[in-house]
Amino acid sequence: MIKRSFFSLSQPRLAYDLLEPDLKEPESIPVPAILSVLLPEPIDNTKQALIKKGDAVKKGEKLKLYDDSTAYTTSPVAGTIKLFDSYSDDFGNIATFITIKADPTQVSEANTINLPPMDDIKLADQFLRKLPGAPPFEILANDEIKITTIVITGTDTDLLSTTNQFVSLKYMDEVKEGAKILKKLTQVPKFCITIPENLDTKVSFDTIEVLKISNTYPSTLPAMIMKDHLNTVMSAGQTPEDSGICFIRAEALVSLARTYKTKKAVFDKVLTIISKNGTRHRIRATIGTPLSKIFARFNININEQDRIIIGGPMRGVATYTPHHPVLADMDTVIIQDRDIIPQLSDYPCVNCGKCIRICPANIPVNMLVRYLEVDQYENAADKFDLESCIDCGLCAYVCTARIPLHQYIRLGKHELLTLRADA
Length: 423
Ligand code: SF4
Ligand code: SF4
Known about the structure:
By secondary structure, the protein is α/β, with parallel strands linked by helices. The chain has helices spanning 121-127, 137-140, 163-170, 172-186, 222-229, 250-262, 291-297, 354-358, 365-373, 377-384, 394-398, 405-422, and strands spanning 2-3, 13-14, 27-28, 34-39, 56-57, 62-63, 73-74, 79-88, 94-102, 149-153, 190-196, 209-213, 245-249, 268-274, 280-286, 307-310, 317-319, 332-336. Bound molecules: iron/sulfur cluster (SF4) (2 copies).
């Protein structure tokens, strides 16, 4: 997969993994006894919460913390709230996790979704935001954002992952059906779908324009797709939505099609699990399932200092707990044995220039990181283009001194946003 060049002055060429030819149904993981869902809102002890320990919940029931909350999640099973507490992500953002004890006598009962009419994106955002694939309804329902193109991702944004390719080809008819529903909901005129250019399969997506994407990393990242296929260059600090383009996972469309067809919310997430020896397992698990249940199914033992990465090797984020729940936007989980984890260092930059040569956004990364190391976030943005970074992670991959460049950059962007919000 990874071909490092022999001559150090040329760039390493990283190729995406291609889908296996035999698209078997994913293996289903049984619904566990205890599940956890995340709610992107911190607990406010001065307010009376709408949920409490011991409350009965129905499958598909919308859960929010307070009367005036806009953030919500939905219960993937019928059962009882066992616990809700604060959760902090890797940048210290506080959210709430809700643990639900499933009631096995009710797990297959009809769920309580309020199916919005097919022409009301705001109502869809009120009830369907948490479908597997995490449809970006918050963006599509926002009157201040004018979306003119929806790009369905049938390609994966990181190496080793093949979940999006799998879903878009295995469930092609449901992707098309979901796109029709989304078109009615949003009235967006143009729909495209990204497919790997070297995929040896016939694809037909009716009126959806097919964008064939190079298999060289990082061609599948939104900024690259926009530049290479939609003639749109994202300016520093902008998002695709600022250019009228919205990206959506193929799986979100499959979930939408199934929800409208069955009139029930769906909670089955397709995931690719890559074990320590590189074996790939394609599974289907209920949102909220602890990863430890999936690891146990495949006899994957997590030892001290092994690393669990949510996402791929270039852009993924490590989690500290094997009990992290399956999320609506989780496509790939990699387990790395502690003995093969690449070592980082605190050596200084040796000015080899590799990071600059490889950066697709032409950022002088070696200079940028000097500012980030001393918390000079505004200067890093103004002088060295911090906000032009497309988060490909290539600079960290090639760094001679093994400086965790991408981690510095991610933290720098986060701190910059926080500084500006505070200001
Ligand atoms: S992660 Fe590194 S190589 Fe990639 S765009 Fe950002 S600075 Fe450039
Ligand atoms: S690749 Fe690493 S060592 Fe080389 S110039 Fe960039 S930061 Fe410095």
